[in-house]
Design goal:
Rossmann fold; elongated; 6-stranded parallel sheet; 10 helices; alpha/beta; 2 domains; two-stranded antiparallel ribbon; 8 strands
């Protein structure tokens, strides 16, 4: 089936995950200040919470967010938080990425711009400690948002890739059938298998995460964004 719209993953596809330590320090400092707990204990508790979030994501294909991370951190520390404090910490946890953002991968913006010149473009991204609302702001800051017509974030859809609803949500926003998508991402189990399961085409971007290069079921593989831009006429 012809490709009528193109969707991109966020992490390790359009953006590389830099500044994670600085974001974590913001969360540690805020939680320690709010609870009078030693910072090192707080750091360990947050790391425990993050491990639980990841395990839930992998096992159930559902995203837990910053509010869950705050709750799990409090549980690990055996402290109680008022609703007001929990809400404030949730905001800090979820917005830390805006103070220390990830970097766009070289050529990513040009790739999205080039794709949008040919087909409607969407974003299909799993989220987590940093929710879709924060990722939207990053996309706007870096000039991506004007080229993107629909976005599906796992904390908003209610499930994570490779669940069909993630791709179906984006396809609906783009006005096409899910099978008419070309989805581009870096993870075989979520991006590639998820797209293929709904009958869509899939492209592996291995420039940031080369793990699946040479061992993928994707229809196309790219390791740089200029390669993708050059192949666009053939792909479409």
């Amino acid at each position: 089936m012809a490709v009528r719209a193109i969707t991109f993953d966020f992490w390790c596809t359009l953006f590389r995950d830099t500044n994670g330590a600085a974001r974590q320090q913001i969360r540690v400092d805020a939680f320690a200040s709010a609870t009078a707990q030693p910072p090192e204990r707080v750091r360990e508790a947050i790391e425990t919470a993050q491990s639980r979030l990841l395990r839930h994501h992998v096992d159930h294909h559902r995203t837990l967010g910053p509010a869950d991370a705050v709750r799990m951190t409090a549980q690990a520390l055996d402290v109680s938080l008022s609703t007001q404090v929990a809400t404030a910490l949730t905001c800090v946890f979820g917005s830390a990425i805006l103070r220390h953002p990830p970097e766009p991968i070289e050529g990513a913006l040009n790739a999205v711009r080039a794709a949008a010149a040919h087909r409607p473009v969407g974003l299909v991204s799993d989220s987590g400690m940093s929710p879709g609302s924060s990722l939207r702001q990053l996309l706007e800051r870096q000039g991506f948002i004007e080229h993107v017509s629909a976005m599906a974030f796992s904390d908003e859809v209610g499930v994570a890739k490779p669940q069909a609803a993630m791709f179906e949500t984006a396809a609906r926003g783009l006005g096409v059938n899910p099978s008419e998508l070309l989805h581009i991402g870096d993870l075989e189990p979520t991006d590639i298998e998820g797209a293929r399961a709904i009958g869509a085409k899939a492209a592996l971007f291995g420039g940031e995460n080369p793990k699946y290069v040479g061992a993928t079921q994707a229809d196309h593989t790219f390791v740089t964004w200029p390669d993708f831009v050059g192949a666009l006429p053939e792909i479409l």
